[in-house]
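Minutes, project check-in
Item: structure for the 262-residue chain
Input as provided by the requester:
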Amino acid sequence: MMAEVLFEKRGHVAVFTLNRPKARNAVNAALSAQMEKHLDAFEADDELWVGIITSGSPGKAFSAGADLKEVSAGRSIESANGGFAGVVRYNRKKPLIAAVDGPALAGGLEIVLACDLIVASSRSRFGVPEVKRSLIPGAGGVFRLPRRLPRNVALEMVLTGDPISASRAEDLGFVNVLVDDPRDVITAAHTLAGRIVANAPIAVRLGLQLVNDSTLASDDENWGYSTQAFRTLMKTEDYYEGPKAFVEKRAPRWTGKMKPKL
């Protein structure tokens, strides 16, 4: 049986590859279950610090969204904890990068929105065409899209169902890295991941958590989150390694571990 999601480790980086080429990576129950299982392994592995979600069908589709054959047959396509595609409701602590080459539409865009950063080729498109079939985005798109784009642009996409180009997405700050040659997408994603793993992993995770929490919280709540995060960071080996490496004029040696209790 062919794996619906491929999982690979490259140093501190995990790569998740959507692998249903004949179905344009449409999401079925098996894909969702396998993605959730791989995310569990990713989160549990102290040596994996950043993940990349990409497609095994370059140019054709990042993901076409839900497998409508499964949906029309009345079968659930969600996983137990991660929901659609095993990722949109997954409660994780480590950053994910979406490496997109081709259309990311409907549920495909919602997978992208479940990631933290986006690398895309210039031939990619992003859209939520559900209204054209009397539907609405049901896997987080209606509330995540206006957090990542100006409200009016998000509304335009949701109400018209029309996609935006990768170049417009970059202009709007939605895409972090845009590449002209589609063959460079995964390389650019690894380069971005490399810039992240060069840093202390626990600090990265706490920074990600604070940015996500601050989006929905008040200033008073955010001060509390920030203070607690700093207290946690002070209990790590890396908190002391960073300044020490600076003083000794050498590259830091991150461990990603808490200080042993005396």
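Outcome recorded: The chain has a mean pLDDT of 92.
No further action items on this chain.
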